[in-house]
Amino acid sequence: MASRELTTIILAAGEGTRMKSARAKVLHEIAGAPLLAHVMETASAAGSSALAVVIGPDRDDVADMARRFAGKLDIKLDVFIQTDRLGTAHAALQAGALLQAASGDVMIAFGDTPLLTPATFEALRQSLREGADIAIAAFTATDPSGYGRVLAQGDQVIAIREEKDASAEERQITLCNGGLMAISARHALRLLKQVGNANAKGEYYLTDIVEAARTEGVIARAVVVDEDELRGVNTRAQLADAEALMQQRLRREAMEAGVTLVAPDTVFFSHDTVLGNDVWIGPHVVFGPGVSMAGPGEILGFSHLAGCRIAAGARIGPFARIRPQTVLGENSHIGNFVEINRSTLGADVQANHLAYVGDAEVGRGSNIGAGTITCNFDGADKHHTRIGRDVFVGSNSTLVAPITIGDEVLIAAGSTLTKNVPDGALAFGRARQSELDGKGRDRVIANQAKRAARKARGA
Ligand code: UD1
Ligand code: CA
């Protein structure tokens, strides 16, 4: 395996005008993560020891996101700013300081190509190990328009011609440059510096290093990759296409890992969803970022989960909503129209119907009756609810936080509780029931008479 170091530079200074968005293109998301984050994750998984992103000026939002995500990946990141957008080679040269110090392999990737895989990074590096000095990821395009064409001679690439600079004959070529390029570190900086801008767009093209290299006897080769993996995102429609491809990939990975998807096309994953063996997922389930669930377990249809950790044996849904900062213990049952938010539930907790549990801790074995609401918000601040173990919260109870309910408490149905309840108590928080003898029947009979009279009048 590769013991050579890998330095990856991700170019993300483009303006993304075709997105028609105030947001930087690389901050648009698929599978719950920004486009740039996907490329960073792949670069990290491929074993990069150093990572750089090149961003446009006044893009603190992109720099912040990249730094945050690098922290999560636990990878060293340098952010470089390309003040003038003079082309892809010029962009790569902004990371000159890093290239100067690099040894081993340098990988140049684009921030708007989120479907790249570590396997393709590895295939390009393999090509370098086998003697190439430059390796590019190429694909056979169904429609090559807009892409750089790969000009090959034998097993070598002799040039990459951008569409605008290509002759009519060159435009017939369907082998296209996918945008991912590996360069042996000892050549990278020198070759990039040789690139000029004598072309139709007057830009410094990264792709021109192939020709610059040839004059020095440096060898470039292409590795052919599936077209889908190299899809770039320039428009909202392409963003949706990339999302669809990524979802297909995540669904397949989940099933390969031992998860049952009854209707795979209706389940939407986040890039970081983690599901254990024998998790069973019904139709129309959506995962936001940060969900992990141990198996076995079940998520029934139309449930929405984000930012939660779920222990084995859980049954969620149908129509459940589990929101961030939630932990569900073993064998918890969360049923229809139940929302759990920023809460920790112990083992064997049940909330089977129509409830809101927010900013709460619920001890093991407790049962949250239908219609229970933790009133966590007073209009200005959020407050905590603590419920002990083996508590039975009767239906339609309103727990006004901050409040602490002890262990083995029984709360009578329909209670509104505003004070703490000690261990073992039976708590009532409702008006005492009273009856007026015969008054009900009087009203029933009077109503029947009224209706009969109305009917007789033909009204
Ligand atoms: C590029 C390739 C083309 C390839 C295609 C694959 C070049 C010259 N062309 O074309 O051969 O077929 O990708 O999708 O490399 N960027 C900067 N600074 C710049 C210019 C671009 O950071 O000054 C970044 C962009 O943000 C983007 C990437 O580089 O992430 C590619 O730039 P883009 O203008 O989209 O190149 P293409 O015309 O698509
Ligand atoms: Ca592009």
From TrEMBL:
<feature type="binding site">
    <location>
        <position position="162"/>
    </location>
    <ligand>
        <name>UDP-N-acetyl-alpha-D-glucosamine</name>
    </ligand>
</feature>
<dbReference type="GO" id="GO:0008360">
    <property type="term" value="P:regulation of cell shape"/>
</dbReference>
<dbReference type="GO" id="GO:0000902">
    <property type="term" value="P:cell morphogenesis"/>
</dbReference>
<keyword id="KW-0012">Acyltransferase</keyword>
<dbReference type="GO" id="GO:0000287">
    <property type="term" value="F:magnesium ion binding"/>
</dbReference>
<comment type="similarity">
    <text>In the C-terminal section; belongs to the transferase hexapeptide repeat family.</text>
</comment>
<feature type="region of interest" description="N-acetyltransferase">
    <location>
        <begin position="258"/>
        <end position="459"/>
    </location>
</feature>
<feature type="binding site">
    <location>
        <position position="82"/>
    </location>
    <ligand>
        <name>UDP-N-acetyl-alpha-D-glucosamine</name>
    </ligand>
</feature>
<dbReference type="GO" id="GO:0019134">
    <property type="term" value="F:glucosamine-1-phosphate N-acetyltransferase activity"/>
</dbReference>
<dbReference type="GO" id="GO:0016020">
    <property type="term" value="C:membrane"/>
</dbReference>
<feature type="binding site">
    <location>
        <position position="430"/>
    </location>
    <ligand>
        <name>acetyl-CoA</name>
    </ligand>
</feature>
<feature type="binding site">
    <location>
        <position position="177"/>
    </location>
    <ligand>
        <name>UDP-N-acetyl-alpha-D-glucosamine</name>
    </ligand>
</feature>
<comment type="subunit">
    <text>Homotrimer.</text>
</comment>
<dbReference type="Pfam" id="PF00132">
    <property type="entry name" value="Hexapep"/>
</dbReference>
<dbReference type="Pfam" id="PF14602">
    <property type="entry name" value="Hexapep_2"/>
</dbReference>
<feature type="active site" description="Proton acceptor">
    <location>
        <position position="353"/>
    </location>
</feature>
<feature type="binding site">
    <location>
        <position position="367"/>
    </location>
    <ligand>
        <name>UDP-N-acetyl-alpha-D-glucosamine</name>
    </ligand>
</feature>
<dbReference type="InterPro" id="IPR050065">
    <property type="entry name" value="GlmU-like"/>
</dbReference>
<keyword id="KW-0511">Multifunctional enzyme</keyword>
<dbReference type="GO" id="GO:0009245">
    <property type="term" value="P:lipid A biosynthetic process"/>
</dbReference>
<dbReference type="InterPro" id="IPR005882">
    <property type="entry name" value="Bifunctional_GlmU"/>
</dbReference>
<comment type="function">
    <text>Catalyzes the last two sequential reactions in the de novo biosynthetic pathway for UDP-N-acetylglucosamine (UDP-GlcNAc). The C-terminal domain catalyzes the transfer of acetyl group from acetyl coenzyme A to glucosamine-1-phosphate (GlcN-1-P) to produce N-acetylglucosamine-1-phosphate (GlcNAc-1-P), which is converted into UDP-GlcNAc by the transfer of uridine 5-monophosphate (from uridine 5-triphosphate), a reaction catalyzed by the N-terminal domain.</text>
</comment>
<dbReference type="InterPro" id="IPR001451">
    <property type="entry name" value="Hexapep"/>
</dbReference>
<keyword id="KW-0573">Peptidoglycan synthesis</keyword>
<feature type="binding site">
    <location>
        <position position="395"/>
    </location>
    <ligand>
        <name>acetyl-CoA</name>
    </ligand>
</feature>
<comment type="similarity">
    <text>In the N-terminal section; belongs to the N-acetylglucosamine-1-phosphate uridyltransferase family.</text>
</comment>
<dbReference type="GO" id="GO:0006048">
    <property type="term" value="P:UDP-N-acetylglucosamine biosynthetic process"/>
</dbReference>
<dbReference type="GO" id="GO:0009252">
    <property type="term" value="P:peptidoglycan biosynthetic process"/>
</dbReference>
<feature type="binding site">
    <location>
        <position position="413"/>
    </location>
    <ligand>
        <name>acetyl-CoA</name>
    </ligand>
</feature>
<feature type="binding site">
    <location>
        <position position="112"/>
    </location>
    <ligand>
        <name>Mg(2+)</name>
    </ligand>
</feature>
<feature type="binding site">
    <location>
        <position position="234"/>
    </location>
    <ligand>
        <name>Mg(2+)</name>
    </ligand>
</feature>
<feature type="binding site">
    <location>
        <position position="234"/>
    </location>
    <ligand>
        <name>UDP-N-acetyl-alpha-D-glucosamine</name>
    </ligand>
</feature>
<keyword id="KW-0961">Cell wall biogenesis/degradation</keyword>
<keyword id="KW-0460">Magnesium</keyword>
<feature type="binding site">
    <location>
        <position position="356"/>
    </location>
    <ligand>
        <name>UDP-N-acetyl-alpha-D-glucosamine</name>
    </ligand>
</feature>
<comment type="pathway">
    <text>Nucleotide-sugar biosynthesis; UDP-N-acetyl-alpha-D-glucosamine biosynthesis; N-acetyl-alpha-D-glucosamine 1-phosphate from alpha-D-glucosamine 6-phosphate (route II): step 2/2.</text>
</comment>
<feature type="binding site">
    <location>
        <begin position="87"/>
        <end position="88"/>
    </location>
    <ligand>
        <name>UDP-N-acetyl-alpha-D-glucosamine</name>
    </ligand>
</feature>
<keyword id="KW-0963">Cytoplasm</keyword>
<feature type="binding site">
    <location>
        <begin position="11"/>
        <end position="14"/>
    </location>
    <ligand>
        <name>UDP-N-acetyl-alpha-D-glucosamine</name>
    </ligand>
</feature>
<protein>
    <recommendedName>
        <fullName>Bifunctional protein GlmU</fullName>
        <ecNumber>2.7.7.23</ecNumber>
        <ecNumber>2.3.1.157</ecNumber>
    </recommendedName>
</protein>
<comment type="pathway">
    <text>Nucleotide-sugar biosynthesis; UDP-N-acetyl-alpha-D-glucosamine biosynthesis; UDP-N-acetyl-alpha-D-glucosamine from N-acetyl-alpha-D-glucosamine 1-phosphate: step 1/1.</text>
</comment>
<keyword id="KW-0479">Metal-binding</keyword>
